[in-house]
Design a protein that fits this description.
The protein is an alpha+beta fold. Helix content is 55%, strand content 16%. It has seven helices and six strands; from the N terminus they run αααβααβαββββα. A hairpin with a 4-residue loop joins β5 and β6. α1 runs antiparallel to α2, α1 runs parallel beside α3 and α2 runs antiparallel to α3. The longest helix is centred in the first third of the chain and has 31 residues.
Amino acid sequence: MMITKKIITICKLLTIPLLLGFPLAVIAYRLHLWSMGTSFKIIQFTGYASIIVLLIAIVIGLFALFTKKQRVFKSSAIVAILLAIPAVGLSLQAAKAKSLPFLHQVSTDTVSLPQFQAVLALRGEGTNPLEYNSEKLAPLQEKAYPELKPIISNLNTEQAFNKAVDTAIKLGWEVVAKDIKQGMIEAVDTTLLWGFKDDVAIRIQATDTGSKIDLRSISRIGGTDLGANAKRIKSFISSF
């Protein structure tokens, strides 16, 4: 029984640093102490370690329950409950990443995408390329996000342009450029938790009955966006 007590004591000592892994990774990245890659490695390590310690705590807890060792059972239960947070969090993220295509940009028009101009100077070195291979990426997007379609409006181009600007501002995006003659709006959306900068291009074109609004959203860093760009465009469509 002494062995199980020692093991659960070690698990308890590991619980606090494992719980601090995620917030430490986020804070350090936001303070520019290290790269996003380093932060993600810390999150992965603490997540997997949490799963291992969680399973150990469950096994010891069940053993203590059957042998009626209440103190050991309570300690195991506390460790299991606390470590379920990072363990479940990592599992959900992993499942989400596996279920979504490896994309860092999406567009409502996958043939003739809205183009960026003003934000090019803001993107800097090391950011994701703007190139879009329609033949390869469009089918992936269509399968994962079939609802990403252009907005067909009965508003004329000027009305739609003004409404698009207002919608972007309402969503908290920073509008960095707007050209009503070209029907182009460029904006930057900063994510709440990590502070990632993602770029958005909005294009308004005239139709026989009003106007068509297309959007393109691209992450500056990261090979996959975990659905963030699609969610951003859907939020705009819903708000518009």
